[in-house]
Design goal:
binds S-adenosylmethionine; about 210 residues; Alpha/beta knot; eight-stranded mixed β-sheet; 7 helices; 8 strands; alpha/beta; globular
Length: about 210
């Protein structure tokens, strides 16, 4: 099994989404992703935005979802664009695959890890450990940060970059404090507040533009 550091450094683009209510125990209701599943609709959309292109996958990207909802948190669900299989872009199908993965037994000990499907790992880790295991700069996304295009404009697009986003809720005080202490910069995509999956698409776009500029 890889280490947490390995999982978090396989890709150049890493998105960490803190999903405060998303069910962590696999009891995802496919007919009620939004309510009874704890906003799994937003998690599924973020997975699609992070990993899918029109006719391909973003093989340089991983998305890591810190599941804090009932009944077995915290769990870090990581999907790697280079090795993922059986993933489809629609919310119901991706949630069904993740439901199957989350039903697999994960020992309760901190640091335990399973690989329930190709390209998917589930780790028992908290926010502080996750952030300290990242390689490369860590950016927290918030509307009140410095302009993202200014910060990312100097990136080559080929080094590991890490982006932390919340779900539909504001960060809790302790999360804010951990991120404040451990991240490099807070970056903004403008004054308008976007959904998490939309913010992911804008970050991809900015990095795609940096990479395509000679
Ligand atoms: C729906 S927002 C979070 C809830 C938000 N505080 C609200 O009032 O609705 C989802 C996440 O996307 C990112 N985000 C949304 N709009 C952004 C912006 N304009 N600049 C940077 N990040 C943004 C942030 O990480 C945010 O936590």
């Amino acid at each position: 099994m890889p280490s947490l550091e390995d999982v978090l450094s396989t890709s150049n683009r890493n998105f960490l989404m803190i999903a405060h209510r998303a069910r962590s125990d696999g009891k995802i209701h496919l007919n009620d992703l939004c309510g009874a599943s704890g906003r799994w609709d937003g998690v599924a959309r973020s997975i699609t935005s992070a990993l899918f292109l029109s006719h391909d996958m973003r093989r340089d990207t991983s998305i890591h979802i810190l599941l804090m909802g009932p009944d077995d948190p915290p769990k870090l669900l990581s999907l790697n664009g280079a090795s993922i299989k059986y993933l489809n872009p629609d919310e119901r199908a991706s949630s069904a695959l993740m439901k199957k993965c989350l039903k697999e037994d994960l020992p309760p000990t901190n640091g335990s890890m399973i690989r329930p499907s190709p390209g998917v790992t589930i780790t028992r880790s908290g926010l502080e450990e996750i952030i300290s295991a990242f390689t490369g700069p860590i950016y927290y996304l918030h509307e009140n940060g410095i302009p993202a295009e200014q910060q990312l404009g100097s990136s080559s697009g080929d080094e590991p970059l890490n982006f932390i986003l919340s779900d539909d809720m504001d960060l809790e005080e302790n999360e804010e404090s951990i991120i404040g202490k451990n991240s490099d910069k807070t970056i903004s995509l403008g004054p308008v507040i976007l959904h998490t999956h939309m913010a992911i698409v804008v970050i991809h776009h900015l990095l795609d533009m940096v990479k395509s500029t000679p």
